[in-house]
Amino acid sequence: MNGGSSILALSNLLKESENQAEKKYKEEESKFTPGLIGDKKKKTTTVEDIVNEHHQNNKKKNKNDIWDDEDIDEVYIEEDPRTEPEYDIIYRQKVTTEDIYLGMSGKTPGFHDCDEMVITIQLPGVKKISDIDLTVYENKIDVRTSTYLLNLPLPKPILENEGNAKWKKDKSELVLSLPLKKEFSF
């Protein structure tokens, strides 16, 4: 009997500690509310408070910044009044008789098998090629005259140093032949 009473005493002891642990857990759980989430310093309640806080956060200097916001003069860039000229983009393939009749190279009529991009830009009123400022990049071209401005992103990357430009004086057309950059050449 002595062993049985020991077991009952141990069981009662464990029940008490279990009840105490559960009571303690419920007390701690009730302490946490959604109001405890976030910054305890200041609670923004109005739109003005939110805007002011946003401006203060943006004024904090980043250690990588080389100047403050006050150091920068706000200059408004006006839109360029020059008009955008009309242009056409055509893809060109270099094919041989084997490609046409025998299909030996595996080329298809799609633009992904093209070798170059031909861009024809209409510049009416421009008399000389020296009046045109042309800059060619891998992904865009920039054409400027006194009356026209064309900043054209290209649909495919090109080899910027290997193209050529022709001026057709009688039609006032600038024709650019730009070889396409190919990722894989088989």
TrEMBL record:
User: Matching InterPro entries, A to Z?
Assistant: CS_dom, DNAAF6, HSP20-like_chaperone, PIH1D1/2/3_CS-like
Q: Where is the composition biased (Basic and acidic residues)?
A: 18-31
| All copies of domain CS, residue ranges | 104-186
A Pfam family for this UniProt protein? PIH1_CS
Top-rank lineage group of the source organism: Eukaryota
Location of the region described as Disordered in the Swiss-Prot/TrEMBL record: 18-39
What are the GO cellular component annotations? cytoplasm
In the record, biological process GO terms are: axonemal dynein complex assembly
- GO molecular function, a single term: dynein intermediate chain binding
Record-linked PROSITE patterns: CS
The UniProt family comment states: Belongs to the PIH1 family.
Protein name (database record) = CS domain-containing protein
Source organism per entry reads Piromyces finnis
Q: What is the lineage of its organism?
A: Eukaryota, Fungi, Fungi incertae sedis, Chytridiomycota, Chytridiomycota incertae sedis
